[in-house]
Structures are given as structure tokens and as C-alpha cells.
Automatic annotation (TrEMBL):
GO annotation terms (biological process): nucleoside metabolic process
UniProt-recorded name of the protein: Winged helix-turn-helix domain-containing protein
Organism in which the protein naturally occurs: Drosophila gunungcola (fruit fly)
Highest taxon above the source species: Eukaryota
GO molecular function terms noted in the UniProt entry: catalytic activity
PANTHER family cross-referenced by the UniProt entry: AGAP000321-PA, PNP_UDP_1 DOMAIN-CONTAINING PROTEIN
Domain Winged helix-turn-helix span(s) in chain numbering: 19-77
Lineage per the UniProt record: Eukaryota, Metazoa, Ecdysozoa, Arthropoda, Hexapoda
Length: 412
């Protein structure tokens, strides 16, 4: 373990108003998608001059990245924009074309990655000037009909949590034959500083799963869980009634030394996206995967990753990890609290707020759900954009592998 002299103070990274750049404004417009966002709201939320925001928006329009909507609001131009149908209400879908699987994403890059796995795609934006807009992409993976959507906003505040719950409820109400729900995207890995087998690295994929060792130790006194949400002192747990998706994931992980179907899906999707979008979904250089350890007093030090048995020139293949995932506002704000919480509950990853989505899934009587998260940082997946695209496409390729392992639908 290398411990260089340079120490980084955590105080340096406290929340501040970000500088006004084209990249930041585009990121915020992508976060809001499919909802349009106004320069006035951007300026108000981030302490910028509205006139300066308008200049940046004009530049993004000239680059062909965003377009204006009603009421001086703007939205992202999707690379398949000409094929997107903007509707006030979803058209009736024939019974044999109704999706049985829903895939929910929270970020724009996650939606792009998931849609790159689909064939025979058709996208609808249910656009509304009041309330939440919705985007639904219908397509196929193997024998299965899929609908993918993107949440309009995520976060810990009440407004964002309500919006994500409402979007999920509307999705499941619109597509009533959906029996299986995947929550797909990026998350922060929980590193292990000495044992490579337990170490979750950037670009790896964590699948929500019961920690079996922990379940054995607790003698089943504790309810099983695949996801936890921490709110103050309260901890809420989630577990699917039907864990068939988790069983397929377990089989994929058990056989990953001899069979890795996600690798082909990933490279095919990367090639397709490279031709259609300016975003880069390639794996970043391994040197950009830096690991830090909190040593107290608001200081962290950079440390070496545990060495992998199959590592070649510092590069390892994407690995699947099975274990619980968690979230909570306190976990994002405190490295120490996140580490303690992860150790206490056996978490392998932490992500942005997904409890309202899970509440909606369970409330709408969907018995089978799974979270599949590509690791983009060591916090919650959103602290840096460097690994997000690759983490998102890694997760999407594993989702396709799980879906291809499912039995063909019988209720169409």
C-alpha cells in the first residue's frame, strides 16, 4: 500500500456554486430530461446571471445539442431525435407488443446505454407543460419486449423523491403487463483496501443481492434485503418477493471465468453509440482509477489498489459483484459515515436516492426487481463524470445478459 505525502483536505470539495460552463449547463439539461428547463430556473438555482446563462444556451443550440420548447424552456436533442414521437398521451399498444420488462434509469448517459442494447426501438416523449414529462423507449432484447424510461430528476429533496415515485407509478400504470423491473445506472463502489476479491473497482458492476454470509451469521433473525435507505436514524430495507432475476445474476457471476456474454454486448453498443453520439463510452485509462482512504481530521491519502490475480498491465476485466446497495443523504456527505454504514450492512455500492422508485414498484405489486449498477466513483456514482459513460454501458450490458437468461414471456 503506497502512502504518498500529499494529502487532500475534504474541506476543499465542499458544495459551492459551480462555474458557469457549457458542459455544466448541458449536464443540468440532461439531468432534467425529458422535462425542459428554463434559463431563469438555472440562474436562480445556481446563482448565475440569467443573461450569461442565455449566452451559454445559445452556444449549445448552435452546437446542435439542445432545442427550445414552449415557455422559453430547453431540452436535450437526442441523437435519435427524428425518430422520437412527441405525444400528449401514449398511443394504444397492441397486446402482443406490450412490454413485460421495464428498465428505469436516472441519468441521460444511462438511458443512452440501455437503449443501445435494444432492437427495433421506438421512442415516445409524453410532453406536458405542467408537471412531469415522460420518455418511453419500446424495443426488444431477445424474446422480450422492453420499455425503458429516464427519471426526470433524482435526489434527496422531497420534490425530487415525489417526482421519481410518480414517474415510476405512471410507467407501471401505462404498461400494465410489466412483471420485471430493472433499475440501471451508475453508483459508487465500496472499496476493500487489502482483499482484491472483495474490492469493487471503477467499471465493475454491482447487482443488488442478499449478502449470504451475513444472512448465515444472523441466523435469519434479520429480514433479507438487497437495498437499504438511510434517513436520519431510520433504515428502510427492500427485498423482492420473486428473486428469479437475482438467481440469473448469481449464475452469470458463477460462470464468468468461462462465459462473459456482456463483453460482446458492451463492445457492440460502444460501436453503435460512437457512430450516433459525441459522447465517449470507452473505458477510461486505468490510471484514472485513483483510490483514497480517509484518515480522519478531514484528510484523505491516496493508496494503491489491491493487486488482482488476473491483472495485465494494470488492466482488469469487468467483474460482477453480488451484494446489497444502499443510499441516503448522510452517506454522500460523509466518507466516514458511508464506510461505517457499508461495513455494518455489508453494502458493496451506494447510489443516488432510489427508495421512492422501489416504494412505487412494491406499491404497484411488482414482485420482481433488481438494481444493476456500474461503478463510476467511490461515493454515489455522480461525483465525477469521467467514468460515468463506461459504468453506465457496463451495467446495461450486464442487464442484457440477465434478460437473455430469462424464460421467454408467456403472458403476451
Amino acid at each position: 500500500m503506497s502512502l504518498p505525502a500529499n494529502r487532500i483536505s475534504l474541506e476543499e470539495s465542499q458544495f459551492e456554486s459551480p462555474p458557469l460552463t457549457q458542459e455544466k449547463v448541458l449536464e443540468l439539461i440532461e439531468q432534467a430530461y425529458p422535462n425542459p428547463i428554463s434559463p431563469e430556473d438555472l440562474a436562480k438555482d445556481y446563482g448565475w446571471s440569467e443573461q450569461d446563462v442565455l449566452l451559454v444556451i445559445q452556444s449549445l443550440q448552435e452546437r446542435g445539442l439542445i432545442k427550445s420548447m414552449e415557455y422559453n424552456a430547453y431540452t436535450r436533442i437526442h441523437h435519435e431525435d427524428k425518430e422520437i414521437k412527441v405525444v400528449k398521451q401514449m398511443p394504444t399498444i397492441a397486446s402482443n407488443k406490450q412490454p413485460t420488462i421495464a428498465i428505469i434509469t436516472a441519468q441521460y448517459c444511462e438511458k443512452l446505454a440501455v437503449d443501445a442494447m435494444l432492437e427495433n426501438k421506438e421512442t415516445f416523449v409524453r410532453y406536458t407543460t405542467v408537471g412531469e414529462s415522460n420518455v418511453y423507449t419500446l424495443g426488444n432484447i431477445g424474446a422480450h419486449r422492453i420499455v425503458s424510461t429516464k427519471l426526470p430528476s433524482v435526489g434527496n429533496n422531497r420534490e425530487a423523491m415525489t417526482a421519481t415515485g410518480n414517474t415510476t407509478t405512471r410507467l407501471l400504470g401505462t404498461f400494465q403487463k410489466v412483471d420485471f423491473v430493472f433499475i440501471v445506472g451508475v453508483a459508487g463502489g465500496v472499496p476493500h483496501y487489502t482483499d482484491y476479491k472483495k474490492h469493487v473497482r471503477l467499471g465493475d458492476v454491482v447487482i443488488s443481492y442478499v449478502d449470504k454470509q451475513r444472512a448465515l451469521i444472523s441466523n435469519s433473525k434479520e429480514k433479507p434485503y438487497v437495498y437499504l435507505y438511510k434517513s436520519g436514524e431510520d433504515v428502510k430495507t427492500y427485498f423482492p418477493v420473486n428473486d428469479s432475476l437475482q438467481q440469473i445474476a448469481e449464475s452469470l457471476q458463477a460462470n464468468m471465468q468461462v462465459k462473459r456474454p456482456w463483453e460482446d454486448y458492451l463492445s457492440q453498443a460502444q460501436q453503435a453509440l460512437a457512430q450516433k453520439t459525441e459522447a465517449d463510452f470507452n473505458r477510461p485509462d486505468a490510471k484514472m482509477d485513483k483510490l483514497f482512504m480517509n484518515i480522519g481530521n478531514n484528510e484523505v491519502i491516496e493508496v494503491a489498489h489491491p493487486i488482482a490475480a488476473d491483472e495485465v498491465d494494470g488492466v482488469t476485466r469487468l467483474r460482477l459483484h453480488l451484494g446489497p446497495i444502499g443510499s441516503g443523504r448522510d452517506l454522500v456527505r460523509s466518507d466516514e459515515l458511508r464506510t461505517q454504514f457499508a461495513r455494518k450492512y455489508g453494502l458493496l455500492a451506494t447510489d443516488v436516492e432510489m427508495s421512492s422508485v422501489l416504494d412505487s414498484i412494491i406499491g404497484n405489486c411488482r414482485e420482481s426487481f433488481i438494481l444493476v449498477k456500474g461503478i463510476a466513483d467511490y461515493k454515489d456514482g455522480t461525483s465525477t463524470r469521467k467514468w460515468q459513460n463506461f459504468a453506465a454501458i457496463s451495467a446495461a450490458s450486464v442487464v442484457k445478459s440477465v434478460i437473455c437468461g430469462m424464460d421467454a414471456p408467456t403472458n403476451v
